[in-house]
Design a protein that fits this description.
Length: about 260
């Protein structure tokens, strides 16, 4: 195991061994190790890389933990952080690890999609940033090259002032989402909605957004149509946590409720 103490050292170690397994908080990786589904031969531990733990304005280092995020100033980001596992998991788990795992149910993904966040990637070859939907490309798949490290999440300079996040699961705490959603409303009243656990990756319900944004008055009929369109746009599956039918229904109901909260704020 390598334990780099700085970003350049970490990038050098990854360039020398692109097949290495990256270890941040370990909240996903160690589950796989304990259940014998992974046996990494070479590990690069990132906990000592101070640059990854920095949070300056709209730039969140990939090593920022969910414990810090839940205490932070961004409403929906703090809301989602509070739903991540137990206090012990939040103290270890990082936003970069959540992105790198690329689970369809990743708790940070709906927020990042709703606000059109960019992901910063670095390697010895240089730095690039990609939009969230260019980074998350499939079930547990990203566009990150083997020699690249997720170094930060870049948020827009101005976030929508009204924002809400919630998720549904089989328990009220420490649960993987059956459906998750983040709704934001801009200063001009335009709404955005992003959903997780209802497709191969997080998705924006664009038709629902266009419909509700065309309504000058958000009537009961308009809100009901918004929820219906969200239910149509999601792409859920049936698995051990839920059925496709339930996920469709829950996605519409949850999105409508979050929009109502935003409008009432």
């Amino acid at each position: 195991m390598e334990r780099p103490s700085g970003l350049e050292e970490a990038l050098g170690a990854l360039a020398a061994n692109p097949e290495a397994t990256l270890l941040a908080g370990g909240t996903d990786l160690m589950v796989e190790v304990n259940y014998h589904s992974r046996r990494p031969e070479h590990v690069i531990a990132l906990r000592r890389v101070e640059e990854l733990r920095q949070w300056e304005g709209t730039r969140l280092g990939a090593g920022v933990t969910f414990r810090r995020i839940e205490q932070g100033p961004v409403r929906a980001l703090a809301q989602l952080a509070r739903t991540v596992g137990s206090p012990q998991i939040r103290a270890a788990g990082t936003i970069g690890g959540n992105l790198g795992t690329a689970s369809p149910a990743g708790d940070s993904h709906p927020f990042l999609a709703a606000c059109d966040a960019h992901i910063e990637l670095q390697s010895k070859r240089g730095t690039r940033t990609v939009l969230w939907n260019e980074f998350l490309v499939g079930v547990k798949r990203t566009s990150c090259a083997d020699d690249e490290l997720i170094t930060a999440v870049i948020l827009p300079d101005q976030l929508p002032p009204r924002q809400e996040f919630a998720k549904i699961g089989v328990r009220s705490a420490m649960v993987i989402a059956t459906v998750s959603a983040c709704v934001m409303v801009d200063d001009d009243g335009r709404a955005r909605v992003a959903l997780g656990a209802v497709g191969p990756t997080v998705l924006r319900a664009r038709r629902a957004e266009e419909m509700i944004n065309a309504e000058s008055v958000k009537s009961e009929a308009a809100l009901a149509e918004f929820g219906r369109l969200v239910s149509e746009e999601v792409k859920p599956i049936t698995d051990h946590r839920s059925t496709e039918e339930y996920r469709r229904h829950a996605a519409g109901v949850l999105s409508r409720r979050l929009l109502e909260r935003c409008l009432a704020a």
